[in-house]
Amino acid sequence: MHPETPYEITTLNGLPQPIPRPVMLPDEIPPGVDWVTLPNGMRTLAYVQPPAMAPVAQPVAARPVPTWAKTTALLTPTIGGGIAAAGIGLSYAAPGLIAMSHALWAAVALIAAGAVALPVLLGACRRGGKGGPAHITQNITATGLFGRASGTINRH
What is the largest CA-CA distance in the chain? Predict the structure, then answer.
């Protein structure tokens, strides 16, 4: 028996013959076959199961950004900046706006007082000189369709 092989082959003449160890290059090994180590330490070629891998997801092709999204993205900072500028402007204008609102309320009060006081003053002025209201009589005469009109005013 040969020291490298644990098995011996007997030929027709009865003499032991060692099993030749074939040498294979890595590129000669077919797919699904690989070198494995047996429990007794011996290395041999054997069919192996490929490792279970999760299916590889195909990358999604990039789609162009829609026009409405681009427009919204461009308008958002503009609108936000406008709102911020309006807020800052109102904060600077607040004292003037408060004073203007007071002036407007004063004008409303003046108009309301005038609406009440004007009829009272007119009534007092009419009654002041005579005992009652004045009577005026007008007589107007005209001849023809386009004639000149003439008249008299009588105060009683």
Answer: 174
Q: State the Cα angle at 82 between 76 and 87, rounded to 5°.
A: 125
Tell me the backbone φ, ψ of residue 110, rounded to 5 degrees.
Answer: -65, -40
Q: In angstroms, rounded to a whole number, what is the distance separating the alpha carbons of residues 125 and 38?
A: 132
Amino acid residing at 95: P
Which residues contact residue 38 at a Cβ distance below 8 angstroms, ignoring those fewer than 6 apart?
44
- pLDDT tens digits, one per residue of 28-72: 888 888 888 888 878 888 888 876 766 777 888 888 989 999 999
pLDDT, one tens digit per residue, over 107-144 is 999 999 999 898 888 877 776 655 556 677 877 787 87
The sign one gets for the Cα dihedral 24, 52, 39, 7 is: negative
Chain centre to alpha carbon of residue 72: 6
What's phi and psi for 133, nearest 5 deg? -75, 155
pTM: 0.29
In the chain, count H helices and then E strands.
1, 6
CA 65 centroid distance within chain: 15
CA angle (23 as vertex; 19, 26 as ends), nearest 5: 150
